[in-house]
């Protein structure tokens, strides 16, 4: 299930640097480090618009990260018939590339850890609602129940480097693919010596280091009920990923709003009181998967999951406009609207 989370804005406040002349006869001050120039590249991949801004990277290095994402997209696409995932969905037994195998294993681990709140085999149900084509419809209950018979990540077969799906099952790694792409790009940039960069991958934000002036990156958290922002996160070397029901939805003939985040246990859009979940962590793929699965869980179960597992922080926005932040963000989340409530490590 793809998420097009166009809900984060990056606020860059870059300042110059300078030095004063040393006093005569004193030990000279060390020469300041040269100011690195910004370079950027934008491209379309994974059905979304991506921008990479890096300080000190050259055109060849940025071209290499773009090409790496293109190659990843070719492996994971559910629509390109020659991709490894499309061949799996067609019923083939597929020998997986190292990247696809790694991502599939990571996705299955998240599915297991979230007890099925994330399920990569939900793809046929998402298609039935029209969220993959924008040809929206409300499936009949009978159709949903029939499709749910083929949902169940635990039945995906992995053996050595190969994989096979049960008849009728289709998978989509889109729930963590953009996050994984961010991890890949950030790793490549670091290997090239880049210490300051920011990636916007269709709304998924990934930062390398701090801003060039040494201050944290500032990432806005959108108000799901307006065009403004409810707060700003200060981050360094983090991924910031948001899932929200307001991002992709339609209003049915019955007047009800149906959004693209589907509860695997029901086959219907998840409505547990949350309208936005933002995850902050070290690993983009994990943040990507958790933003969806914690949305499905609802506030109480999501906060219990955070307390039991840790390793990430979160901002939860409820349908009554309340903002909740986990304790690790207490000093780095700046409210811009409604005051936030801090979720402690103990209930």
Give a brief outline of the structure.
The protein is of the alpha+beta class and 347 residues long. It has helices at 59-76, 84-89, 98-113, 123-128, 141-148, 174-191, 284-297, 299-309, and strands at 8-11, 38-45, 48-55, 94-95, 157-159, 162-164, 197-201, 204-208, 217-222, 229-235, 239-244, 249-251, 257-259, 274-281, 312-318, 323-326, 333-335, 340-343. The strands form four sheets. A nine-stranded mixed β-sheet has the order 2-3-7-8-11-14-15-16-18.
Structure commentary:
This protein has 347 residues and is of the alpha+beta class. It has one domain (1-11, 36-347): T-fold (Roll), CATH 3.10.520. It has helices at residues 59-76, 84-89, 98-113, 123-128, 141-148, 174-191, 284-297, 299-309; strands at 8-11, 38-45, 48-55, 94-95, 157-159, 162-164, 197-201, 204-208, 217-222, 229-235, 239-244, 249-251, 257-259, 274-281, 312-318, 323-326, 333-335, 340-343. The strands form 4 sheets. Strands 2-3-7-8-11-14-15-16-18 form a 9-stranded mixed β-sheet. Strands 1-9-10-17 form a 4-stranded antiparallel β-sheet, with no helix packed on it. Strands 4-6-5 form a 3-stranded antiparallel β-sheet. A hairpin with a 6-residue loop joins β9 (217-222) and β10 (229-235). The protein starts with 7 loop residues before the first strand and ends with a strand.
Give the topology, please:
Blueprint: E1 8-11, E2 38-45, E3 48-55, H1 59-76, H2 84-89, E4 94-95, H3 98-113, H4 123-128, H5 141-148, E5 157-159, E6 162-164, H6 174-191, E7 197-201, E8 204-208, E9 217-222, E10 229-235, E11 239-244, E12 249-251, E13 257-259, E14 274-281, H7 284-297, H8 299-309, E15 312-318, E16 323-326, E17 333-335, E18 340-343
Parallel strand pairs: 16-18
Antiparallel strand pairs: 1-9, 2-3, 3-7, 4-6, 5-6, 7-8, 8-11, 9-10, 10-17, 11-14, 12-13, 14-15, 15-16
Helix pairs in contact: 1-6, 6-7, 7-8
């Amino acid at each position: 299930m793809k998420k097009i989370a166009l809900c984060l804005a990056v606020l860059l406040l870059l300042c110059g640097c300078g030095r004063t002349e040393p006093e005569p006869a004193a030990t000279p001050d060390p020469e300041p480090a040269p100011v690195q120039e910004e370079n950027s590249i934008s491209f379309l991949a994974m059905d979304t618009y991506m921008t990479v801004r890096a300080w000190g990277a050259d055109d060849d290095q940025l071209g290499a990260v773009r090409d790496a994402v293109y190659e990843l997209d070719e492996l994971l696409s559910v629509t390109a018939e020659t991709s490894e995932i499309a061949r799996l969905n067609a019923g083939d037994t597929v020998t997986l590339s190292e990247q696809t195998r790694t991502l599939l294993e990571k996705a299955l681990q998240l599915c297991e850890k979230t007890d099925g709140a994330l399920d990569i085999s939900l793809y046929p149900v998402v298609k039935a609602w029209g969220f993959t084509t924008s040809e929206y419809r409300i499936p009949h209950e009978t159709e949903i129940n029939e499709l749910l018979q083929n949902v169940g990540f635990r039945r995906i077969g992995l053996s050595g480097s190969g994989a096979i799906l049960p008849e009728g099952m289709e998978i989509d790694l889109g729930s963590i693919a953009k996050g994984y792409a961010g991890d890949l790009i950030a790793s490549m940039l670091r290997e090239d010596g880049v210490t300051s960069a920011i990636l916007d991958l269709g709304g998924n934000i990934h930062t390398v280091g701090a801003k060039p002036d040494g201050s944290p990156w500032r990432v806005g958290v959108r108000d799901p009920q307006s065009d403004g922002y409810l707060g700003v996160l200060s981050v360094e070397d983090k991924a910031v990923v948001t899932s929200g029901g307001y991002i992709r939805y339609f209003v049915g003939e019955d007047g009800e709003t149906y959004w693209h985040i589907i509860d695997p246990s029901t086959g219907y859009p998840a409505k547990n009181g949350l309208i936005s979940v933002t995850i902050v962590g070290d690993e983009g793929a994990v943040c990507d998967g958790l933003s969806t699965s914690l949305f499905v869980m609802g506030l109480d179960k999501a906060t219990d999951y955070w307390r039991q597992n840790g390793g990430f922080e979160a901002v939860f926005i409820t349908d009554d406009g309340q903002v909740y932040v986990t304790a690790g963000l207490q000093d780095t989340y700046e409210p811009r609207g409604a005051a936030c409530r801090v979720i402690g490590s103990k209930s």
